[in-house]
């Protein structure tokens, strides 16, 4: 497979809004992954009371702080084995490069490492959950 063919595949991924593309035959195999930003938007809901005075329910505070996202599709494990303690806990301070968990993909255990230093505010997935590419896994305090 030459560079021109790979560029065509990348353009196809962008055109069709694909995050992953795998292609292979007897002679070659290629796996392409796009870094796609994930955005969430909070939508406030209005509450109508019976006294005909419209009231608006308080909007829940949108989570702040940066997140670590999954670099691949796989199964997230919070500890090295079922009997071991988790790599990180809520409130724990981590440094860039510290291991946050493991993502198993195609029988390979891939470490999920912190890309920044901070304090863990929330672990957004449970042990043994399937995670998608770009899915938020850990949130840091703002």
Structure notes:
With 142 residues, the chain is mainly beta. It has one helix at residues 3-16; strands at residues 20-24, 29-33, 46-48, 54-56, 67-69, 74-77, 93-94, 99-105, 108-113, 118-123, 130-131, 136-140. The strands form four sheets. A four-stranded antiparallel beta sheet has the order 5-12-10-7, with no helix packed on it. A hairpin with a 2-residue loop joins β8 (99-105) and β9 (108-113). It is globular and about 50 Å long.
Compile the SSE list and pairings.
Elements (H helix, E strand, L loop, with lengths): L2 H14 L3 E5 L4 E5 L12 E3 L5 E3 L10 E3 L4 E4 L15 E2 L4 E7 L2 E6 L4 E6 L6 E2 L4 E5 L2
Antiparallel strand pairs: 1-2, 3-4, 5-12, 6-8, 6-11, 7-10, 8-9, 10-12
Name the average pLDDT.
82
Largest sheet: 4 strands, antiparallel
Number of strand segments: 12
Strand order of the largest sheet: 5-12-10-7
Helical stretch count? 1
Shape: globular
Low-confidence stretches: none
Considering DSSP H and I runs of 4 or more, what fraction of the residues is helical? under 10%
> Which structural category do the helix and sheet elements fall into?
mainly beta
Strand content: 35-45%
Could you give the order of the helices and strands?
A: HEEEEEEEEEEEE
Q: What Rg do the Cα atoms give? A: 20 Å
Gap from first CA to last CA: 45 Å
Write out key terms for the chains shown.
mainly beta; 142 residues; globular; 4-stranded antiparallel sheet; 1 helix; 12 strands
């Amino acid at each position: 497979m030459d560079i021109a063919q790979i560029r065509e595949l990348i353009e196809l991924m962008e055109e069709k809004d694909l995050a992953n593309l795998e292609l292979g035959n007897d002679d070659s195999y290629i796996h392409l992954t796009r870094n796609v930003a994930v955005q969430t938007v909070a939508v406030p809901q209005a509450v109508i009371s019976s006294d005909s005075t419209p009231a608006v329910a308080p909007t829940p505070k949108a989570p702040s702080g940066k997140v670590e996202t999954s670099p691949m599709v796989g199964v997230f494990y919070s500890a090295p084995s079922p009997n071991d303690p988790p790599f990180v806990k809520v409130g724990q301070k981590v440094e860039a490069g510290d291991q946050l968990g493991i993502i198993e993909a195609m029988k390979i255990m891939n470490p999920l490492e912190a890309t920044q230093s901070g304090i863990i505010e929330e672990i957004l997935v449970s042990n043994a959950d399937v995670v998608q590419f770009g899915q938020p896994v850990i949130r840091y305090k703002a």
